[in-house]
Amino acid sequence: MMNDSVLFNADSETTAQAVTAILTRQGYRVFRSFDLRSALVGHAECECPYHGTAHCTCQFVVLLVYSAATGPVVVTAHSHDAQARLRVVQDALTQPDPHLAGQVMAALREARLTLPVTATEPTEVMADVR
After folding, report:
1. What's the predicted TM-score (pTM) here?
2. For residue 126, what are the β-bridge partners?
């Protein structure tokens, strides 16, 4: 199984908005099905499992992308320390249409090119084959 991801030098909200705008312009429908910051509104003192701090500042967003005929492609955006990794989820239970998944990955790469990049921080595109 393959999980394609793109690393951004921006937070999840900025990257999710950029990807959503690009996909919407291309005629796809994008729905936010989960947002960690919204889920934690009533829990001000939520310990961060990633950083071990008393207050979690991470963000995790799940986007569902649909074309007129197929979908969804599931995209997750996880950010911490001013970087976000957006990933097209593909596993045994989630096998999206390959054409739509390819279009979504192209939109992720396009969004990365439209956001400012800090020269001292790494930017990568990777495919993890498991």
Report:
1. 0.75
2. 5
Rounded to an integer, what distance in angstroms lies between the CA atom of residue 91 and that of residue 1? Answer: 6
Structure tokens at 111: 């969004």
Taking only the tens place, the pLDDT of each residue in 37-54 is 566 666 666 666 666 666
Instruction: Give whole-number Cα distances, 57 to 50, 60, 103, in Å.
Output: 10, 10, 30
Q: How far apart are CA 81 and CA 11, in angstroms?
A: 8
Give residue 6's domain range: 2-116
Residue type at position 30: V
> Residue 31 maps to which CATH number?
3.30.310
SS3 104: helix
Domain contains 127: no
Task: Quote the number of domains for the chain.
Answer: 1
